[in-house]
Write a structure and sequence with these properties.
Blueprint lengths: L1 H19 L20 H28 L2 E7 L4 E3 L10 E5 L2 E5 L6 E8 L7 E11 L9 E2 L3 E6 L5 E6 L8 E7 L16 E11 L12 E11 L2
Antiparallel strand pairs: 1-12, 2-5, 3-4, 5-11, 6-10, 6-12, 7-11, 8-9, 8-11
Length: 236
């Protein structure tokens, strides 16, 4: 009778283990017990050791997988951005243009102005924002008609109050000539607003180009180019 109880116990453990290991490590090397015959201790222990080995292996695989999951990013090409304006005027001094792999502003009608672009950012629920970067090209830095990109901002729109809050910005404007990456890391990585809550907020990026008053609007709008941006995050 005791041998039969051991057989039933071993069978239950094996069934549970095998159900949980579908698509993972198989349990091999098991002893098959025959009804109404004694179960030897070494055979029972051998079956338990085989199950333990498979469970330990699957546990390590899960641990390794979890270690790989938390880091991620959402990347946006320049073509994801749209012209942003604070006015409902049908005409705008800032006309967004797309060419090749970048966007810029047609400055034909304006100078000494700031022009902005925005794009929605779809981040995983519960993720924590850890970084922000944008690839830009500033061909005017250090010239007489010096213009630049403002610090680029990740913004949070409250879907209940319609208020907008900047939660992360690049530390500097473009401060070199040519292709460069503007980057930002949170001053306080534990700030609650850095935890994505899609149930209450929508998230957008804002990129602003600031044109000096001595820029030649007919020819120099495309001297400030946006190529794309990336928002990095970790998962809980």
């Amino acid at each position: 009778m005791k041998g039969l109880q051991i057989i039933r116990m071993v069978s239950g453990v094996l069934a549970f283990s095998l159900m949980g290991s579908v698509g993972a490590t198989d349990v091999t090397g098991l002893t098959t017990f025959v009804p109404n015959t004694p179960a030897k201790a070494e055979e029972v222990n051998g079956n338990f050791n085989a199950v333990k080995s498979a469970v330990d292996d699957n546990d390590q695989r899960i641990t390794d997988l979890e270690a790989k999951l938390p880091d991620g990013a959402v990347s946006l090409s320049a073509f994801a951005f749209s012209e942003w304006t604070s006015s409902n005027s049908s005409s705008s001094a800032c006309q967004e243009l797309r060419i090749l792999n970048y966007v810029y502003f047609d400055m034909y009608w304006a100078k000494s102005t700031s022009c902005s672009l925005t794009a929605p950012v779809h981040l995983p629920q519960g993720a924590t924002v850890t970084g922000l970067s944008c690839l830009v090209n500033d061909e005017l830095y250090g010239t007489a008609a010096d213009s630049n990109f403002y610090p680029i901002t990740l913004r949070q729109l409250d879907l209940t109050t319609a208020t907008t809050n900047g939660i992360l910005s690049t530390g500097t404007s473009s401060s070199d000539v040519g292709l460069q990456t503007l980057t930002a890391t949170p001053f306080d990585p534990d700030a609650p607003e850095l935890v994505v809550d899609n149930t209450q907020y929508a998230y957008t990026l804002m990129v602003t180009a600031n044109y000096a008053d001595d820029v030649a609007p007919a020819v120099e709008g495309n001297t400030l180019k946006l190529h794309g941006c990336k928002v990095e995050y970790t998962l809980p």
